[in-house]
Amino acid sequence: MITTNDVAKVYDTVLSIPGMSELVKIDLKISRKEVLLLSHVISLGINQKETPSDLLKSIAPEELLGMQNIAQDCLEKAGLVALNEKLTSLSEDCK
């Protein structure tokens, strides 16, 4: 049976493959709605405290920061930073 440690080793191995750190250009056209949802999903995944996935457990904190930066960059390019902040504040007020 495969253990959590085995899964972490596999993820670490895959992420260490030569070329995985190379930058790639992605030409992506998505709606503002999808940008907002993508940013939210990234944030939820990164901030998940209960049972994070084995992949997230094996990622260095600076790489997670890179994902947050990607989400923020998408929001900026779509002109949704202020709206996202207000929606986040609103949802936090409901907790």
TrEMBL record:
Q: Know the name of this protein?
A: Uncharacterized protein
